[in-house]
Write a structure and sequence with these properties.
Strand content: under 5%
Radius of gyration: 16 Å
Number of domains: 1
Low-confidence stretches: none
Order of helices and strands: HHHHH
Distance between the termini: 39 Å
Helix content: 40-55%
Structural class: mainly alpha
Shape: flat
């Protein structure tokens, strides 16, 4: 089973938001051959990291489910505990 928010984002936006919230600098994308090596080491399919799917939680929405944090930024903010510098 897979679950997604009602407002899916591209991996690029996810990573940019995570870096911003965690005060990390920009980093280049992982080269495709390294993704294949990593997938082999983890015994998974590299397509999971190299291709995308735009998923909407249609069944949850039809059932009236209300997301506590439907937007990425607020969801990440709720997950991260503020730290003192």
């Amino acid at each position: 089973m897979h679950v997604t928010s009602p407002n899916p984002v591209r991996n690029e936006q996810l990573m940019a938001t995570l870096r911003s919230r965690m005060r990390r600098p920009w980093s280049p994308p992982t080269p495709t051959p390294l993704v294949h090596v990593g997938a082999w080491l983890m015994r998974t399919d590299p397509a999971l990291a190299l291709t995308g799917r735009r998923c909407i939680p249609r069944r949850l929405q039809e059932a009236g489910f209300e997301f506590r944090h439907p937007e990425l930024d607020e969801a990440i903010a709720a997950l991260l505990v503020p730290t003192t510098p």
